[in-house]
Amino acid sequence: MKILSNRIARKIFISGIVQGVGFRPFIYRLAKKFKLKGYVRNLGGSEVEVLIEGPKILVEEFIRSINIEKPRAAKIESLVVEEAAPIGANDFVILKSDKKAKLYSMIPPDFGVCEYCLSEVLDPNSRHYRYPFNSCAWCGPRFSIIEKLPYDRENTSMRDFPLCEDCMREYTDPTNIRRFHIQGISCPKCGPKVWLATTDGEKIEVDDPITEAAKLVDEGYIIAVKGLGGFHIAALATDDDVVLKLRKRKRRRYKPFALMALDIEVAQQIVEIDSKAREILESPEKPIVLLPEKDDSSVSKYVAPGLDKQGVMLPYTPLHYLLLKDTRDRFLIMTSGNKKGKPMCTDEQCAITRLSGIVDFFLFHNRRIINRVDDSVVRFTDGELTFLRRSRGYAPVWIRLPFKLNKKIIAFGAELQNAGAVGFDDKVVLTQFIGDTDEIENLDYLNRALKFFSSVYEIDPSEAILVADKHPRYASRLLAEKWAHQYKSKLVHIQHHYAHIVSVLAEKKFPLDSKVIGIAIDGLGYGDDGQIWGGEIFVASYKEYIRVGHLEYHYMPGGDLAVIYPIRMVISILSKFMEEEEIIQFLKKRNLIKGLRKGVPELKIVFKQLATAPRTSSLGRVLDAASHLLNICYERTYEGEPAIKLEAAAKNGRLISELLEIPIKTNNGKIIIQTSKLFENLVNNLHNSKNDLAYTIQLGLGLALGRVASDVATRYGIDHIVVSGGAAVNSYIVKGIKTMAKEKELTVLLPNKVPAGDGGIALGQVAIAGAKLLENS
Ligand SMILES: [Zn+2]
Ligand SMILES: [Zn+2]
Q1: Cβ proximity of 333 and 237 under 8 Å
Q2: Cβ-based burial of 612 (10 A; exposed 0-12, middle 13-18, buried ≥19)
Q3: How confident is the model at residue 103 (pLDDT cuts 50, 70, 90)?
């Protein structure tokens, strides 16, 4: 009797990424280890139910061990323990999934190769030796090969490769930790194959296509490699001629190329890696991480011209690892295999048509890529992890809202570096990175991705609420209107910067009635007054916002031309305090007449355009103008280029106190940060070093934004300042904002799970539309 009274039972509900990652076999083994009885089963909804029964002390130890010993790819969002009556089970078993209780399952993301699979690939005695597609419960493709749910082999492109006898034995063996019931496993006998091909797509007969490809890269050839979620272009990163050849063929003048390094040791030869950086580089998500380049790195200066950082990732498939291992440098350029502006290729036909003018050879394989997933890109902003692109490894992991949606929602995002989203229950699923949707093929991809997720999560567009940006000319908005027309569904429009701010509220799970101060800083977004916004200070909640302040408006002579050629913004800002002739003399003297094809005569046209130009409060345009004025960058050849180079130029800069303070005035009840005064001051202080000027300008802008935000926060009794928008990843600006907030003991929050740029906007769109629906219901 005494022993029985010690016997207890607990029901444990675990949710998160717990399906398709070997979680049930793990629970099974853990229970066996403690000699406990009961069962484990999938519930759907990305939830696993465990009934565990046995002596109290062991049950408690079992529960503690779940978090500590869980499989590498598993992520536990919540673990709820309930008391249960012992059922007198005499074994521990894995039960079949409960079909009736099926909620929506999370589609697992793609995981980078794990150390166990890699060691098999490198072990001559393993049957997976040199096998480029080795994977297990803890690693390998998931989302990129899924056609539909549930995640079973027959619903993935692995159905083309029936399991051989050896693999089947492992698949059905519950004691096989890494392969029992894992859908994507394969081996050299039954799995996909690689081969080398000419630019016509003709197969080249060689013993080992990967070794041969490595040899060709070492000889200076450029090779397109079919990877996990699409094609890469691989080339030597240490040879100027090769890098310049690639730039010419890809018609990519300055945009940096990403690097892939064999391992941490090799990466350490290129960039500074601290413990935080190492952790993210080696994580299962394996994103590209922007890190400070070492002074003695051997990377060609043409890989990331004018920048102080290199984007580095580690190999995330055995194929990449084997390729790098056989090369001389053990790191390579691995840039996405696309034509300028077009989406990355995912099949052989696209590669042959589009990439044959760029590369010399192809390394193909025959596993179909179902969902394109580009590499994710992260960086550290004033020490905090921030996303530039959320895709492979992260998409389509859902984000939990702090409230339940009472209708399903489909959000179309914005325009540049776009991603859409679907929302249901308390979940928001952002699509993978789509690209700039002003390009028709990317827009089509957004359309397909939203259809895919709508169908997977059973969202009927005719009953859902559609959300789009307010910009009347955004292609994503036009697409949303097309859907609204076709499905007769309701469409709402949400202001761009407001969505930026609420994306952070949602990510940080602020309760529904919270109020924050929002600082939304970016290149451009359509404002409520019809002007171009981009330097905004809001008092914001899920349901409403007040624009309390912004950066001073400046004209954008030539509209979009002023985005490409910052000189137009320089002229616009200087004209606030200088005469035309004075400006011409000044620009001539400082050798700044660049980005105007016809020189001084065009300058006069720009003066005339000022009167009718649209106006902007964009921080991006101010940074661009500063970048031009400091002779750092005269033309934007990729998004954010002048501002990114200005940030790079500020490294180790010192403060120029005369320049730091940017005046503020109040106009019609709105606080205006007078950026023209900053430029007036700047013009008089140009004798200082470029480095110190770049540093002070950016810090000063951050301080000004932080000062206004903190004052307003105090006035409204608000504790949190939220910063978002593309410029919210700038370390100096964020540092300035944080400095001012600290003085008033306010907390500053950046988005850490979704991009600060437009790739995170769809999350805000869903949250706002959802909160408004709750209010009206
Ligand atoms: Zn593995
Ligand atoms: Zn096999």
Answers
A1: yes
A2: exposed
A3: low
Count of C-beta atoms within a 10 Å radius of residue 432 = 27
Spacing, Cα 260 to ligand 2 middle (Å): 29
pLDDT tier, 5 (very low <50, low <70, confident <90, very high otherwise): low
pLDDT in tens, 156-170: 999 999 999 999 999
Structure tokens at 383: 């020490």
**Cα distance between residue 469 and residue 364, in whole Å:** 39
Q: Helices 475-487 and 440-456, interaxial angle, to 10°?
A: 40
Ligand 1 midpoint to CA 157 (Å): 18
Indicate the SS3 state at residue 698.
Answer: helix
Residues 608 and 617: their CA atoms lie apart, in Å, by: 21
* Across 316-320, average pLDDT: 98
Residue 194 has pLDDT above 80, yes or no: yes
> What separation in Å is there between the alpha carbon of 389 and the centre of ligand 2?
35
Going from the Cα of 186 to the center of ligand 2, the distance in angstroms, rounded, reads: 5
CA distance linking residue 365 with residue 530, whole number of Å: 50
Q: Residue 385: beta bridge partners? A: 380
CA of 322 to the centre of ligand 2 (A): 20
Q: 55: helix, coil or strand? A: strand
Measured CA to CA, the distance from residue 541 to residue 505 in angstroms comes to: 8
At residue 1, the pLDDT reads 40
**CA 258 – ligand 1 centroid, Å:** 25
Closest CA to 229 of 311, 109, 357: 109
From the centroid of its chain, how far is CA 178? 29
Q: Give the number of the ligand closest to the Cα of residue 316.
A: 1
Nearest Cα to Cα of residue 307 among 269, 257, 260? 257
CA dihedral in degrees (584, 590, 596, 600; nearest 10)?
30
Sheet containing 259-261, strands listed edge to edge, beginning at the edge strand earlier in sequence: 203-204, 194-197, 361-365, 223-226, 231-235, 331-336, 259-261, 309-313, 288-292, 377-381, 384-389
- Cα(636) to ligand 2 centroid in Å equals 50
Cα 614 to Cα 95, 548, 570: the distances in Å are 64, 21, 15
Q: What is the pLDDT of residue 20?
A: 79
Counting ligands in written order, which one lies closest to the CA of residue 164? 2
User: For residue 348, how many other CB atoms are within 10 A of its CB?
Assistant: 18
Tally: H helices and E strands in the chain: 25, 31
What tokens were used for 187?
A: 């081996």
- Render pLDDT for 24-63 as a digit per residue (tens, 0 to 9): 889 998 999 999 999 998 886 678 899 999 999 999 999 9
Q: In sequence order, what are the beta bridge partners of 17?
A: 75
318 alpha carbon – ligand 1 mean position (Å): 10
Q: Residue 75 has what pLDDT?
A: 87
Taking the C-alpha atoms of residue 760 and residue 496, their distance in angstroms, rounded to an integer, is 11
Cα of 643 vs centre of ligand 1, distance in Å, is 40
Q: Say how far apart CA 22 and CA 142 lie, in whole Å.
A: 13
SS3 category, 13 = strand
CB 218: neighbour CB atoms within 10 A? 15
Residue with tokens 């018609």, as numbered in its chain:
251
Give the three-class secondary structure for 257.
Answer: coil
